[in-house]
Write a structure and sequence with these properties.
Layout (H helix, E strand, L loop, with lengths): L28 E6 L5 H15 L4 E6 L9 H10 L2 E5 L3
Length: 93
């Protein structure tokens, strides 16, 4: 007889809905921050194209960390904050 064991634990914290949201309008600037993993910038290109189809007239700005093992440094984050209404980040592999 084979016995299968599910390795997943029961959640220890209650689920919390993600409450951050915004409304985009033509002319709004959306930042796309690639984290440095392979294909994260390429993936964000597809995300950006989908956003442009959904909200025509938005402007996309592409940003990237130098590599995946580094945190995004303050000058990069300051630039994103000054230029963009919102930012989408992505992990790629």
């Amino acid at each position: 007889m084979i016995r299968f064991i599910d390795p997943r634990a029961e959640p220890s914290a209650p689920e919390e809905p993600y409450a951050l949201a915004t409304t985009l309008s033509p002319g709004d600037v959306v930042g796309l921050l690639a984290n440095g993993f392979a294909d994260s910038a390429r993936f964000l290109g597809h995300v950006g194209a989908a956003l442009e189809r959904t909200v025509p007239g938005i402007e996309l700005r592409h940003f990237a960390k130098p590599n995946a093992s580094m945190v995004a440094e303050d000058p990069l984050l300051d630039g994103i904050t000054k230029e963009c209404k919102v930012v989408v980040t992505a992990y790629g592999h």
